[in-house]
Write a structure and sequence with these properties.
Radius of gyration: 40 Å
Largest sheet: none
Number of helices: 41
Number of strands: 0
Mean pLDDT: 84
Length: 731
C-alpha cells in the first residue's frame, strides 16, 4: 500500500473533531502558535538582504558560486532569515537550503520550515525525504527527545509557513515506515489537541505495518478499536488488513467474525475481503468452509477472482488431488474467471509432483496459448519434476529456456537443478551452477550445501566443503545425517580425527545415529595413519550398534593392511569376507595385487588376479595399470604387452606411470619402435614422461641426426620436468 497515494485530506478530520472531542469531554481544540523567530540585527539584516538579492538576481548561476563571497560570514541564524525573503520561490528555497546544509547540518526549526514550504507548494515527496532524512540523522540519539523536539518545531512553524495539515500525515507515515510505531501513535494523539485527525489512508498504513509484525498484532487490534473514537472511519481496506493479519496467525474464525462485522457497520465486504478469509480457511485446511464462502460471494453478487480460486486449487494440489484441482479450475473458467499465471503454475507444480508430465506440459502450453508468461516459479516446478524423475537433460533445457526469456532463477530453482545434477553424479555441472548462484548473491539452502559438500569431499576439495558447511551452520540451517557425514569426511581429510570423533558423539546427542558411511570414514583415517587397532575398534563398535559394513568398509581395512605390508592380515580379511558372504570388488583385490607387485612377487599377484576372475569380479582400469607396471618391473614384457592390448580393447585408460614403465621396459628389450609409438601416444594425451625417458629419446633422436625433434624434446623436457611440478599418479 502507498500511504500517500489517495489518502483523504487530513484537514477533513478537523471538521469531525468536535464530535470526537465531545465524546472525550472536550469542547474545543488548541490553536496553533504564531511563529516568532529571533530578530536580526541591522548588520544581519543588511547581510541577509545582500544574500537574497544576489541569489534572486543571479538565479541562473550555481548558488555555490553566487554565495562564495558570503561563505566566511554566513551563520546558521542567517538561514531562516534568508528563507523568509525567498519563500515564494520554491526552487530557490531548495537550492539555498541544500547549499546551507552542505556547510553545516541545519537546525530542526530550519528543516521544519522547508518541510512546511514543500507541502504548501504541493511537493510532498520532497517534504517526505526531508522528514526521513531527519530520522536517519537522529538514529544515534535519544529517539524520545528527538521526536518531541521535531514535533514541537513542526507545530511552531505550521501556522506561518504552511498551514497544510497534510504535513502531519506525511510525518506520521514516515514514522510508521521507519518502525517508530509508538512515536506515530503519540503524534496521532498530540495532533488531536490541535483538531487534526490523520487520514484513513495513513492509519491503514499503520495497521498494515503492525499486522505484518507478529509481535505487534496486539497493537494493531488496539489501534483498530481506539482510532474510530478519534474520528477515523475505517473502510474496507482497513478490515481487509486486519482479516489478513488474523489469517496469517491461523486465527481464521476471528477473521471471519471481522467479515460479518463489516456488514453490520455498513462497510460492505469486497472480493478481497472474501478472498482473504477463503485463503485463511485453506491455510488451516478447512476446504468446505472455504467453498461455502465462494458460494456466499456469488449470492451477494461478488465475482470471485483468480486469487480466490488459487487458494482452493493450491490446497487440493498440495494434497495430491490434482484431478479435483483441475475440476475446480474448469469451474472457474465456466464462471468467466480468467486464470492467471499463479493458478497455472500451481497446477503445473501439482502435476509434476505426481509425475504426470503430459498434463503438466499441456497446461504449460495452454498458458502460452493464453499469452500468459510463465514465471520463474512455473519453470522451477517443471525443472523439479523432471529432476525427480531422472530427466536431467530435459531439466537443463528447461532451465536455459527460462533464462533465455529473461527470467531470473532464485535459490529454489538453482537448488532443484543442482540437486538433480548431484544425484546423477555430474558434480562439475552442479558446481558450475553453485558458482552462478553465489555470484548472483543467492543463498544456498540445506540441500545445496549438503549435496555440494558431499561432492566436494569425494573429490578431495575438503577446505571448500568445510567452508560451505560452516556457512550453512552460521545461517542456522539444521544438520542432517548426510551433512554430518560430509563434515566428518572433511575433518578426516584434513587430519583432524579428534574433532571428527567428537562430531560423531555430537550426532548421538542430537539424536542422529552414525551410519555405515560415518564409521567407514573414521576407519579410513585410522588405516591411513597406520592405527589399525583403532580401525578395528571402530569396526567392532559399528557391528555392536547393528550397523552392517559395506564393501567400502572392507576395502578401507584392506588398504590399511596392505599399506602397512600386513599382507597376511589382508589375505585373512579377504577369506573372512568370502566366508561371510561379502563379495569383494576390484578395489579389494587391487590393494593386495599392488603390494605383491611392489615386492616383485608376480607369481602371487597373478594368483590373486586369477582368483579375482574366478569369483566373477571384473577388473577395472586400476587393475590393469597395477599388473602392467608389475610385469614391466619384473621384465615380463610379453605379459605386459598382452595386458596392454587387453586394456586398450576394454577401453581403459593407462596412467602416466604405466606408460613410463612400459617404455622403459621396451627400451631394455630393444623394442624401440614400440617404445617410440607409446611415447608419441603419451605426449598426444598430454601426459608427462619422466626425465629418464626424455633422456632416452633425446639421445636416440640426436644419434639419428634429427636435430629438430631433439631440440623440441629438449624444450619440452625443460618445461615439464624442470619448470613444472610432476602430475600425481593415483596408481
Amino acid at each position: 500500500m502507498d500511504p500517500g497515494a489517495s489518502s483523504p485530506h487530513p484537514s477533513r478530520g478537523i471538521n469531525n473533531n468536535n464530535k470526537k472531542k465531545s465524546s472525550l469531554g472536550l469542547a474545543t481544540h488548541r490553536p496553533f502558535p504564531s511563529y516568532s523567530p529571533k530578530k536580526p540585527t541591522i548588520r544581519d539584516s543588511e547581510f541577509v538582504h545582500r544574500i537574497s538579492t544576489s541569489i534572486k538576481q543571479r538565479r541562473r548561476e550555481p548558488v555555490r558560486s553566487v554565495l562564495k563571497p558570503f561563505e566566511s560570514k554566513f551563520r546558521s541564524d542567517h538561514l531562516i532569515w534568508v528563507l523568509m525573503k525567498i519563500r515564494n520561490d520554491f526552487n530557490l528555497v531548495l537550492d539555498f537550503f541544500d547549499w546551507a546544509r552542505l556547510r553545516k547540518e541545519p537546525s530542526v526549526e530550519a528543516r521544519c520550515v522547508v518541510i512546511q514550504i514543500s507541502v504548501a507548494m504541493r511537493h510532498p515527496k520532497i517534504s517526505r525525504d526531508l522528514i526521513r532524512g531527519f530520522w536517519a540523522n537522529a538514529g544515534g540519539f535519544d529517539i524520545g527527545n528527538s521526536f518531541r523536539h521535531f514535533v514541537e518545531q513542526l507545530v511552531y512553524t505550521y501556522k506561518d509557513w504552511g498551514s497544510d495539515p497534510l504535513v502531519f500525515d506525511i510525518v506520521f507515515q514516515v514514522l510508521v515506515e521507519v518502525g517508530l510505531f509508538d512515536e506515530a501513535r503519540n503524534l496521532f494523539d498530540k495532533m488531536l489537541n490541535y483538531g487534526v485527525v490523520m487520514s484513513v489512508g495513513s492509519c491503514n498504513y499503520l495497521l498494515s505495518r503492525l499486522s505484518n509484525n507478529a509481535d505487534r498484532i496486539d497493537m494493531a487490534i488496539e489501534v483498530f478499536g481506539e482510532f474510530p473514537q478519534a474520528g477515523v472511519c475505517w473502510n474496507a481496506e482497513s478490515y481487509n488488513i486486519m482479516m489478513l493479519a488474523f489469517c496469517k496467525v491461523e486465527n481464521v474464525d476471528k477473521a471471519h467474525s471481522f467479515l460479518l462485522e463489516m456488514e453490520l457497520r455498513g462497510c460492505g465486504p469486497d472480493v478481497v475481503s472474501y478472498s482473504t478469509v477463503i485463503d485463511g480457511f485453506c491455510r488451516v485446511r478447512e476446504l468446505q468452509r472455504a467453498l461455502e464462502l465462494v458460494r456466499e460471494m456469488g449470492s451477494k453478487g461478488l465475482k470471485p477472482n483468480p486469487y480466490t480460486y488459487n487458494s482452493i486449487i493450491s490446497l487440493l494440489c498440495n494434497d495430491g488431488k490434482v484431478v479435483e484441482a483441475e475440476r475446480v479450475f474448469k469451474e472457474m473458467i465456466n464462471y468467466s474467471v480468467v486464470p492467471d499465471e499463479v493458478i497455472y503454475t500451481t497446477l503445473v507444480n501439482g502435476f509434476c509432483k505426481v509425475g504426470n508430465f503430459s498434463n503438466a506440459f499441456r497446461l504449460y502450453d495452454e498458458m502460452l496459448s493464453r499469452e500468459l508468461r510463465p514465471d520463474a516459479i512455473t519453470y522451477t516446478a517443471l525443472i523439479g519434476g523432471l529432476c525427480q524423475n531422472g530427466k536431467i537433460e530435459e531439466a537443463h533445457k528447461c532451465f536455459h529456456e527460462m533464462l533465455s526469456k529473461g527470467l531470473v532463477a532464485d535459490e529454489v530453482t538453482y537448488t532443484v537443478l543442482i540437486d538433480g545434477y548431484c544425484k546423477m553424479g555430474r558434480m562439475k555441472d552442479a558446481f558450475s551452477l553453485h558458482n552462478q548462484m553465489v555470484q548472483l548473491g543467492l543463498t544456498p539452502n540445506i540441500v545445496t550445501y549438503t549435496t555440494l559438500a558431499d561432492g566436494l569431499c569425494k573429490q578431495g576439495e575438503v577446505e571448500t566443503a568445510n567452508e560451505l558447511l560452516h556457512e550453512m551452520c552460521a545461517k542456522g540451517l539444521q544438520l542432517n545425517i548426510f551433512t554430518y557425514n560430509s563434515l566428518i569426511n572433511g575433518l578426516c581429510k584434513v587430519g583432524n580425527t579428534k574433532q571428527a570423533v567428537k562430531l560423531m558423539e555430537d550426532m548421538e546427542v542430537a539424536g542422529i545415529h552414525p551410519d555405515a558411511f560415518s564409521y567407514t570414514t573414521l576407519m579410513d583415517v585410522y588405516c591411513k595413519s597406520g592405527e589399525m587397532a583403532r580401525a578395528n575398534e571402530v569396526l567392532r563398535e559399528m557391528l555392536d550398534n547393528g550397523i552392517q559394513p559395506t564393501i567400502v568398509t572392507f576395502n578401507v581395512l584392506m588398504n590399511g593392511f596392505c599399506a602397512l605390508g600386513m599382507l597376511e592380515d589382508g589375505n585373512k580379511l579377504l577369506s573372512w569376507m568370502l566366508d561371510k558372504g561379502f563379495m569383494p570388488n576390484a578395489t579389494t583385490y587391487n590393494a593386495l595385487m599392488k603390494q605383491h607387485c611392489i615386492r616383485s612377487n608376480m607369481r602371487m599377484t597373478s594368483e590373486i588376479y586369477k582368483r579375482m576372475c574366478a569369483q566373477g569380479v571384473p577388473p577395472d582400469s586400476n587393475t590393469y595399470n597395477i599388473l602392467i607396471k608389475g610385469h614391466c618391473k619384473a621384465r615380463n614384457m610379453k605379459e605386459a604387452s598382452y595386458l596392454l592390448m587387453e586394456t586398450v580393447e576394454k577401453g581403459f585408460r593407462l596412467s602416466a606411470t604405466t606408460y613410463n614403465a612400459l617404455i622403459k621396459g621396451l627400451f631394455k628389450r630393444k623394442r624401440v619402435a614400440e617404445a617410440r609409438k607409446l611415447f608419441k601416444e603419451m605426449r598426444t594425451k598430454g601426459m608427462t614422461a619422466d626425465r629418464e625417458i626424455y633422456n632416452l629419446f633425446l639421445d636416440l633422436n640426436f644419434s639419428e641426426g634429427d636435430i629438430g625433434i631433439t631440440l623440441e624434446l629438449c624444450d619440452e623436457a625443460i618445461e615439464k620436468c624442470l619448470m613444472a611440478k610432476k602430475s600425481n599418479d593415483p596408481s
